[in-house]
């Protein structure tokens, strides 16, 4: 099968997200004049080592947020955000925070999630998350499409839960990170294997 996105795919559901998968989930927490916010984004990844940098993309809008969603609007105002890593055990509360709420709603409270203060930025983070990356905004890029924005940040602080650090390595099997697939599907990482590069 081949299709041009501009012509449509002819399938019952869009296959694009299923093709580009699995994708890590950035559980983005923010703080601005309307309060604290927490929302998951599956268009998320690390993009550079030195300095460490991450990005996430927001692809829809709310009527009360001037052409975007709460997270981007909050980051525009504050210049900071935190990426919380989602473990399998937090799948249900993460899903609660994906709901559409009026601007100013604190999803930490809605989902019953405890929060902690970040160290290097004025922003909340998910207490007990396997890891959290405190980030300073570097740029917001408007992408083609009505409400598509890519948010880039430099990591200024890194939290790792003690039980996830084993023999000097961050062990993802200790918490089984949640990944987004296509449609309404998810996966979790439960086992690893290693490959040596040809020049190792």
From TrEMBL:
Transmembrane segments: none
Entries under InterPro entries matching the protein: Flavin_Rdtase-like_dom, Split_barrel_FMN-bd
Start and end residues of each Flavin reductase like domain: 20-172
Protein's name in the database: Flavin reductase (DIM6/NTAB) family NADH-FMN oxidoreductase RutF
Alphabetized GO MF terms: FMN binding; oxidoreductase activity, acting on the CH-NH group of donors, NAD or NADP as acceptor
């Amino acid at each position: 099968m081949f299709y041009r996105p501009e012509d449509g795919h002819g399938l019952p559901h869009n296959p694009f997200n299923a093709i580009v998968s699995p994708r890590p989930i950035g559980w983005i927490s923010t703080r601005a004049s309307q309060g604290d916010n927490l929302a998951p984004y599956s268009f998320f990844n690390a993009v550079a080592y030195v300095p460490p940098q991450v990005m996430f993309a927001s692809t829809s809008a709310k009527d009360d947020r001037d052409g975007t969603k709460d997270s981007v609007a909050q980051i525009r105002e504050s210049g900071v955000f935190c990426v919380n890593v989602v473990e399998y055990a937090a799948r249900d509360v993460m899903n609660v925070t994906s709901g559409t709420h009026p601007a100013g709603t604190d999803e930490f409270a809605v989902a019953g999630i405890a929060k902690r203060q970040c160290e290097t930025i004025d922003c909340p983070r998910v207490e007990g998350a396997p890891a959290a990356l405190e980030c300073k905004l570097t740029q917001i890029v408007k992408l083609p499409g009505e409400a598509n924005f890519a948010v880039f940040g430099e990591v200024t602080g890194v939290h790792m839960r003690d039980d996830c650090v084993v023999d000097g390595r961050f062990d993802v099997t200790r918490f089984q990170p949640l990944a987004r697939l296509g449609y309404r599907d998810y996966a979790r990482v439960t086992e690893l294997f290693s490959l040596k590069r040809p020049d190792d």
